[in-house]
Amino acid sequence: MARSVSEIYDAIIDSKNQRDELSDLNSTSQVAIYKLWAFIVSVSTYTHELLWDLFKEDIDNTLVSRINGTNEWYSQQALEYQDGDELLLLDDGTRLGYEPVIEENRIITRAAYFEDLDNAKGRLNLKLAKCDVGSLSELSTEERGRVEQYFERIKFAGTNINIISIQPDEIQLEDVTIFHDGVKTDAEIQTNVEAAINNYLENLPFNGIFYIESFRDAIQSLDNIVDVYIEENGIKRTSYITGAKVKDIEVVRRAVLDAGYGIIADPSLLKIQIED
Question: Which of 39, 108, 154, 199 has the most CB atoms in a 10 Å sphere around its CB?
């Protein structure tokens, strides 16, 4: 890490003071020639050390992004997939990629990974979704097939990859009651609460964790809300991880969303009422 100008300057002066042959350089003036030269050298040395720090940071970032075969690398490769384009050998045959890069064809916008170590063969699971925040959706059957072929070509030998791209988890609000102060109508409160819930879900990191208390806080932070009462097992979810619709999965404190993202199944189930 680059030293400050003052640290370098002090080191130069300390070194000078330890040399008997430089003992005549003892002026107390702040503009003494030897002090000015020490300052000039300090600034030059600081600039040199700073440039080396920036160079090292650039090299480190390049190495991290080019570590082929790591879980992070597979996740990044998913984001770089270009649907319908041909994979080419680039950089003198050292890597597979696309030329030119066409951003519109990079249909995967969210990617996350987790390892399935309980699987006998070991497996890297990649959760993928397309479209923008607020409208995330699963890959079509055809798109998923092409993505699987893509990974078959770029993966390291022996890597077992499982692609997961399914419908969003549906959060079931079966026993959630919102109490408000009566300043606004039930309909207005319903609209505001739905917007807050959608905002909470949209801002969850992809493959993030749905926390009941954070969900409650997102609603409680609204104006005119007095209380958010969630009965035991009042929040459940529906998952499509098995390929079929599995309902009524209990959410006990928290839940990792199988699809990596979620939506509210039926906002009308929310109970809205004025605090007595």
Answer: 108
Q: What is the DSSP string of 242-262?
A: TSS-EEEEE-BSEEE-TTS-E
Q: Are strands 169-173 and 262-264 parallel, antiparallel or unpaired?
A: parallel
Kind of pairing between the strands at 161-164 and 225-230: unpaired
Listed in sequence order, the residues at least 6 apart from 203 whose beta carbon sits closer than 8 Å to its beta carbon are 133
CB count within 10 Å of CB 138 equals: 20
Q: In the sheet that 246-250 helps form, which strands lie side by side, from edge to edge?
A: 246-250, 235-239, 169-173, 262-264
Q: How far apart are CA 81 and CA 102, in angstroms?
A: 10
Using CA atoms, how far apart are residues 78 and 167, in angstroms rounded to an integer? 18
Question: In which order are the strands placed within the sheet that holds 123-130?
Answer: 108-116, 123-130, 161-164
What mean pLDDT is reported for the chain?
A: 91
Separation of alpha carbons 184 and 190, rounded Å: 10
Asked whether the beta carbons of 170 and 237 are under 8 A apart, the reply is yes
Q: What would the two tokens of residue 266 be? A: 């039926």
- What residues contact 121, with CB distance under 8 A and at least 6 apart? 160
pLDDT at 201: 95
pTM for this predicted structure? 0.72
CB under 8 A, 24+ apart: contacts of 22-30: none
Tokens of 102: 């066409």
Report pLDDT digits (tens) over 25-82: 888 888 889 889 989 999 999 999 999 999 998 887 776 666 677 888 999 999 999 9
